[in-house]
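Quarterly update from the structural biology core.
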Amino acid sequence: MGTFCAEPVNEAVHQFAAAYLTANYINSYWATEHGGIVWSRSHGNADQPLRPDTRCWPLPWINGDVCTGPDGLEVAADGAKGEVVIRGRYPYMALSVWCSEGFGTEGWQGDVSRWATYFSKGSGCYVQGDAAIRHADGAFTFHGRSDEVINVGGNRIGTEEIENAILLHHEEMYDARAFNLMVGYR
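Predicted structure, tokenized:
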């Protein structure tokens, strides 16, 4: 089994990994701040079929969704892209930093503004700035950081669009560095 972490991986790349690395190549979603995986796919679960569109599902103890709207807390329609929001606590969620009593307050010695953004949607809602699409079957496809864009002439271009453009012209770029794959063995 192989996994990657919530990066936008298009169908061609996913099929390549499944063919040459491992047949059960899945997507999972987590970040250091999460403390562990929060979205993934159960191995061998017929209700969560392996697809080359990198879908994954929230783990049973995660109350998460994709949200849009003016306050960023309206559940997105199926097929719509929005921001990933986790509501409520889960078993391995960090509730403080280094057991600091003043965590997140003005007197705290850490970066208050940075940590405040994680809980900016209100009490009990954790956001990290990642974008995803919600599907009718309860699955999610992650599309990387919602703020990771290049602004070109007023057009916001994300890394996913750049990678897909490179793949569209793969014949001309066959020898390019983008088509090399490193696999480490231990």
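The domain at 2-147 is CATH 2.30.38.10 (Luciferase; domain 3).
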